[in-house]
Amino acid sequence: MDAIEALLTRRSVRRFDPDRPVSPETVDLFLRVLFQSPSAGDARPWQFVVVDRRETLRGLAAAMPKCDMLETAPLGVLICAEPAREKIPGFWPQDCAAAAENLLIAAHACGLGAVWIGLHPVADRERAVREALGVPPEIVPFALIAIGVPAETPPPEDRRDSSRVRRNSW
Ligand SMILES: Cc1cc2nc3c(=O)[nH]c(=O)nc-3n(C[C@H](O)[C@H](O)[C@H](O)COP(=O)(O)O)c2cc1C
Predict the structure, then answer these.
(1) CA-proximal residue: ligand 1, atom 18 (nearest)
(2) Could you read off the pLDDT of 35-60 as tens digits, one per residue?
(3) Residue 160: inside a domain, yes or no?
(4) Does pTM top 0.85 for this prediction?
């Protein structure tokens, strides 16, 4: 699958085959992809936590409402910011979002499904993940990406809306 096809066909997947783990090679590839993401001033203010222990994933599902996808996902990747690493203050949410999107596309391109679980700026979710995974105070849990072999296949959607596109001026 080329990059354009991956971008145009990716959908959020929220049900996975719990018995098919993501291989260590694929997890390594995802980490390469994450560190390859763009960041303001090339600061790379990220910290990542790879979660593949079933009990821990279940604990995260129990700690947050509407996170049932973590009941079946064999893998979660927590994307965190370490704001002290920033070179241009204020950009860390965008740096983390770029990494999250890269990971979603990489998972889809590998034939896996994934969904972005938003944490920051929802204080209850940030706290739940901080407590469940022991994230230290200077680190901000930004998003958790649930990944696995899909047990559902949402179809691609064409969402173009020409009424919101202007050319050369508003
Ligand atoms: C910042 C952000 C936070 C999100 N948080 C959640 C979430 O907590 N739970 C969830 O099921 N999906 C979450 N999503 C996924 C969106 O619901 C999904 O991308 C959107 O409905 C479009 O569907 P698609 O991903 O299939 O194109 C989030 C997406 C983004 C970008």
Answers:
(1) 12
(2) 999 999 999 999 999 999 999 999 99
(3) no
(4) yes
